[in-house]
Every structure is written in structure tokens, then in C-alpha cells.
Amino acid sequence: MASTAKLTNVELGSEPIVRYRELLEPAAWQDFERSMTELAGALQGRVLWNISSTARGGGVAELLTSLLPYDRGAGVDERWVVIEGSPAFFEFTKRVHRLLHGFPADGSEIREEERHEYSATLGRNARALAEMISPGDAVIIHDPQAAGLVPPLADLGAHVIWRSHVGLDKPNDVARQAWDLLRPYLDSAAAYVFSRQAYVWEGLDSARVRIIAPAIDPFTNKNRDLRHDEVMGILGASGIQRMDQGEGHYGAVSRRAELGGDLLPPDAKAVVQVSRWDALKDPVGVLDAFAAHVAPQTDAWLVLAGPGATSVRDDPEQPEVLRDVLSRREALAPDVRARVQIAQLPMEDVEENALIVNALQRRADVVVQKSLAEGFGLTVSEAMWKARPVVAGRVGGIEDQIEDGRSGILIDDPRDLEAFGDAVVELLRDQSKATRLADQARRRVINQFLAPRQLTQQARLILDVIGR
Ligand code: UDP
User: Fold this and answer.
1) What is the CATH number of the domain that holds 252?
2) Which terminus of the chain has a lower count of CB atoms within 10 Å, N or C?
3) Is residue 274 within 6 Å of ligand 1 at its C-beta?
4) Are residues 353 and 435 in the same domain?
5) Confidence class of residue 206 from pLDDT cuts 50, 70 and 90?
6) Residue 213: pLDDT above 80?
């Protein structure tokens, strides 16, 4: 008998959508409420499934964790299943991920045995899913890792939507190669969702394409308001910041970050990037730019924070990238090295991890996201919501979030370390500019990048798909 995969059902709570009423304009609130009510009505007796490749670490996990509870709170039976795959499978899908960003992966050619591993793995997952999913259910399949599930789940009679979270601004042959690999799997999808228009693949039926940008939830531990003493308590308790006697307690935080470098002094200015240890987030470039162009001009510290390096199961490259960052730090001149902290955040408890990220983003004088490529870049909206001035690469979805010079600063060429460093220095020195950008940043997120906008668009899409 053919084998089946062991799926993981992610536990989900439910949250009341009504908490958004205060935050939204009346028209947006009514739209949101109406769409959610209609969706719940139309899905009576059916399940809305999400299928992804990891339950934690990275933007997709973040999105599902924060948004799904609102659908459930509105009466939708929504569930989230994580697929199973071997290390070889995830190494392959990580390569595909890089190709989709237009970056040649090691040995760019896709090999026949990899193709085989991909379809065999998803075949095993499809057999396990077939025991759970019923005809008429709606299914959202996230990203290339799980794209091969579209045909078998459509064959079951489910309404299948494929949601891509990655893309590149200008398609190149590297990306086209990955599209060619995946496109045959996508024929039977009822809709394709991309985060931005520029990401839509050539050769897909444009009538089935929708653009829905991601969004953040300001009520989660990642984004909820924290008082200054809470920020300090969390950073002390997690072993990131030095504390004076009696400080450094915060009930929900007990695990400590693993540090390369010293504890951040409570009064030091801090430049912070929070990201998975992914070469496309360019942590080494951030460190080099800081060392060459920020450290000599200011007394600020740099904090590069990310998840414990082996904790994100669909991202096998993390340990290697982290090693590069740590050895680059070692090579710095002692006086600069003393102001660079590499923090691996504890990942055992997602809520604890979220609180630490929240505190770090709030603690930052300048948040940076110097990515070389970026699907959307939730960390940018997270920082903007917290009214932080952000300096980021003008790549991918970051460009949709920050209006350069108004709600943050975009660096046209993120490989230009000097331009990047100069922008950071300017914001560290010019407090009134930093505050102006930060205020606009928060406003922009409230208008464009909060969960109800995304949930409303998605509800309409699902209503459309199941009504066809
Ligand atoms: N993140 C986290 N802990 C970490 C590093 C990152 O919770 O140690 C979160 C971060 O706050 C954001 C998400 O992971 O919510 C990253 O999403 P983004 O879209 O920025 O990038 P991706 O990882 O999807 O490429």
C-alpha cells in the first residue's frame, strides 16, 4: 500500500472581529463585518483549510497564526495543516524559493531526482489530506512547497486556491525556470493569489489571478502595545539587554536568547533588524554597513535578531548564514565588535518569541530591513505600526509599504552600504525627522496593512470561488 505522510494540525483559537471596530473607519468596518458574515454563512457545513510547510518562523506562519482566529471568531470552521517532508524535500523547496526570487541557487538546474522527491512527498501528503478534506471544502495552499497538492485536492472536489507569498520585481530566466517547474501543478486551481501585481507569473490564466497584500494584527503579542517598563523587562528577562538589580522580569518571558556579543546597554541607541537567517535578508550586509558607515559616526549599537538557527523546519540554510554572520562579527575591530549583538531568539514558545520581537522592535531607534529581495516583508509593517523609523531596501513588497521620505526611507540599491549607512546615521541624529517618518509610518499601516483589509479581500475571493 502507498505510504501516507504524518500531517500536523496547528491548534487555533478564535478572536472577536469586533475589536477592530474602534480602529477602522466606519465604512471599512461595515465592509469587513458584512464580508465575514457572508463568508461564514456560505461556508456552513464546510471547512476552510490552509496548508503550509511550517507552523513557525517566517511570514506565512505569522500571517496564519494572527489572521485565522478572526475567521473562526466570525463563525468559519477554518483549520491549518502543516505538511511533512524530508530534509531533501526542504532543501529542494528552499532552492525553488531562491529561484522564485530570481536568485540562482547552488546548481541552478533542477534535477530529475529532486522533481521526483517533490512529487512523491506531496503524493504522500495528499493521501493523508484526502482522509480529512471533503468535496465542497475550500482549501488555500500556501507557497511553492505545497503547490503540488493542487491537482489531488481539486480532484477530491475541493475549491483550491493557491497563494504565493514570494516573487520578484522583474522576472528573469532563473525565476522562469521555477515557474515552469510549478505551473503544471497549478492548472486546476480556482484562483491564484499574489501579494503584488509585479509578482504574477507569466502563463497563468489572468481571470483567476487576485492581488492581496499581507497585513498585520495589532492585537497579537507581536504587535500589541507595550509600556516602556514592559519593553525593558522583556529585553532583560530574555537576556538581550543589561539590567539593573530588580529589573528584568516579565511573567511570560523566561527563556533566554543565545547571544553573539554583549548585552545591550539600556541607554544605548539601537539599530535593529529582525529576520530569519536568510542570505536574501542580507544580515552580513547590515553588519558590514554598520561597521563601515554607522559605527564610526555614532555610538549606536547594532542588534541582528532571528530565530534559533535550527528551529525553522522549511529553512535548512539558516545555520550556515548564521555562521557567516558570527564569523564576520569576530573579524570586526574590537571597538566596533563590542557594539554588535547577534541574538538567536528562543522559539520554543511562539508567544514568548513574539513578545521578544515586539520589545526589540519598540526598543529600536531605527529599524532596518536591508533585504536584497522580499516577498512582502511583514517586519516592515510591524515596525511601522510601532511608530519606528525604518530604513529598508527598495525591493519587493517593502516598496508598497514605505513611501520613501514620507513614511520611512528606501535605499534604491540595497547593496549600496554607504547609502544605507548614511540613511541610518541621519535618522539617529535627526530626531525630528525620525519622529515625522515614524508617525506617518503608523498612519500608513492603519490605513493599508491591518488584518481586516486582507480578511475582507480574502472572504470576497472565497465567496466568488465557491459560488462559481
Ligand atoms: N520573526 C519572528 N521571530 C524571529 C524572526 C522573525 O517572529 O526570530 C517574524 C517576524 O516578526 C515576521 C516574520 O517572522 O512576522 C517574518 O516575515 P517577513 O514577511 O518579514 O519575512 P519572511 O520570513 O516571510 O521572508
Assistant:
1) 3.40.50.2000
2) N
3) yes
4) yes
5) very high
6) yes
Which uninterrupted H or E stretch holds 41? helix 26-42
- What are all long-range contacts of 334-337, with beta carbons under 8 Å and residues at least 24 apart? 335/295, 336/290, 336/291, 336/295, 337/261
| Grid coordinates given for 5 | 505522510
- pLDDT for the residue numbered 369: 98
User: Do residues 441 and 455 both lie within one domain?
Assistant: no
| Chain position carrying cell 517593502 | 398
Cβ atoms 161, 140 nearer than 8 A: yes
- Ligand 1 centre to CA of 186 (Å) is 27
The range of the structural domain enclosing residue 197 comes to 8-215+450-467
Q: Are residues 281 and 187 in the same domain?
A: no
Output the nine-digit C-alpha cell for 354: 513574539
How far is it, in rounded angstroms, from Cα 434 to Cα 220?
A: 25
Contact (CB, 8 A) for 385 and 225: no
* Å from CA of 235 to ligand 1 middle: 18
| Mean residue pLDDT across the chain | 95
454 touches 215 (CB < 8 A): yes
Nearest CA to ligand 1 atom 23: 58
> Which atom of ligand 1 lies at the shortest distance from residue 57's CA?
14
Rounded CA-CA distance 14/66 in Å is 10
Query: Is residue 378 classed as helix, strand or coil in its secondary structure?
Result: helix
All residues at 6 or more sequence positions from 60 whose CB lies less than 8 Å from its CB, including other chains: 52, 54, 142, 143, 165
pTM beyond 0.90: the answer is: yes
Any idea what DSSP says for residue 105?
P
Gap between the Cα atoms of 275 and 360, Å rounded:
12
Element (H, E) at 321: helix 318-330
| Residues 340-372: tens digit of each pLDDT | 999 999 999 989 999 999 999 999 999 999 999
Contact 315, 280 (CB under 8 A): no
User: Distance, CA 245 to ligand 1 centroid (Å)?
Assistant: 32
Is the model's pLDDT at 1 over the cut of 70?
Answer: no
Q: How far apart are CA 291 and CA 285, in angstroms?
A: 10
- Which atom of ligand 1 lies nearest, measured to the CA of 305? 8
Inside any domain, residue 430: yes
- DSSP lists the bridge partners of residue 339 as none
Question: What is the Å distance from ligand 1's center to 367 Cα?
Answer: 14
Instruction: Give residue 166's Cα distance to chain centre.
Output: 10
Give the sheet arrangement for strand 48-52, strand by strand.
Answer: 8-9, 78-82, 48-52, 138-142, 159-163, 191-194, 209-211
